[in-house]
Amino acid sequence: MKYYKWTVSLAVASLACAAQAEEKVNSVMTALSATTLSGYVDTSAQWNFGTGNAHLPEYKFGGPSKADGFNLDVVQLRIEKPLSEETWAAGYRVDLWAGPDANVLGTQSILASGTGDFAVRQAYVLLRAPLENGLDFKLGVFDSIIGYESVESPSNPNYTRSYGHSIEPQTHTGLLISYRFNDLIRASAGIANTIGPVINERAQGPNLSPNGETKAESSKTYMGSIELTAPETMGFLARSTFYAGIVNGFSSSYGENQTSWYVGTTIATPIDKLRLGASFDALDVHHLGGETWSVAGYATCQCTDKLSLHCRAEYLRDRGDQKFFVTDTDLNPTGSTNPDRVLALTATVQYDLWQNVVSRLELRWDHSLSGSETWGGKHDDSDPTLKNQWMLAANVIYKF
Known about the structure:
This protein is mainly β. The protein has a domain at about 45-75 and about 155-170 and about 195-400. Helix content is about 10%, strand content about 45%. It has 3 helices and 16 strands. Strands 1-2-3-4-5-6-7-8-9-10-11-12-13-14-15-16 form a 16-stranded antiparallel beta barrel. Strand 9 (about 240-250) and strand 10 (about 255-270) form a beta hairpin. The radius of gyration is 25 Å and the shape is globular. The termini are far apart. Residues about 1-10 and about 325-335 have low confidence and may be disordered.
């Protein structure tokens, strides 16, 4: 059979193109094979006892918008490629939020024109350098390094958040370096643009400062933490953890630098199914005076494979000019209705009846220790009438 040269050339070129295309497809499939997709859908139903719930205890992801009704809290979608065991490993993580809680997250960038029930919770590149046990880097937008509770609801022992969680920094845009010295000691240090959470915000502006004050272009936020784990030789206390951290930098909410301290511990007990925890959070807004701090205790009992009980007791102190929570102050960025001293008790029953579903029932009591009536009242701007606020909530989360 006779072939023309151009026919043979065309056939060879076609085979080469097909091989290259197949190689590219295989390369893409190899990259995607290490990528995971996960997330959750968070829903709730909440009943605040009594009538007139215009003024409620102010803690993050709570408030009148969720009272006395059914709620979609948030949908989280995670796309992730974790670090492998390679010497020079690389990966990434993206957490996207959709729903009402995305507006509370507050991570919309300085260029955003509106919230629209959507937010980027985290988005960072992961890198590892082969320095002894491995030096890990996060570059991008990441959760704050301090806090007993997580922004991620299914990871918390209770449905509602604590006051301590509410005064902590939440999200930073910057660089975080972590190093594990051994199985017992781990440390982190980082630098970010601001305290956050606004993505790509700068201390020198543009920013969201209420008084328009800015800092020098060299102004940055610095953070550090250390985590200690009890060795197996400590008996029943083995695997207990102690954590301490600090974050210091510019806060556009106040137009001032602020410092946040955190100390927390999780303690194993002689009872295998019982674990205890404690946390201390403090916020200092520079040059304003006053104090805002919270101390909380936690208890968790894993009664059966499906049933667990979780309790939290917390005391909040908020006084002086900075007043993160208290109402009627020009410097209060939240417009809160809390008194300057609060006792809060929370009890949560979790029973995982369905696979991949977190289902829990929670009773919460917030009590004003300042003697003032700060809660209750109608939505027509009537004065609050209550020193106590009771809330019963059901929370159902599907994790995928």
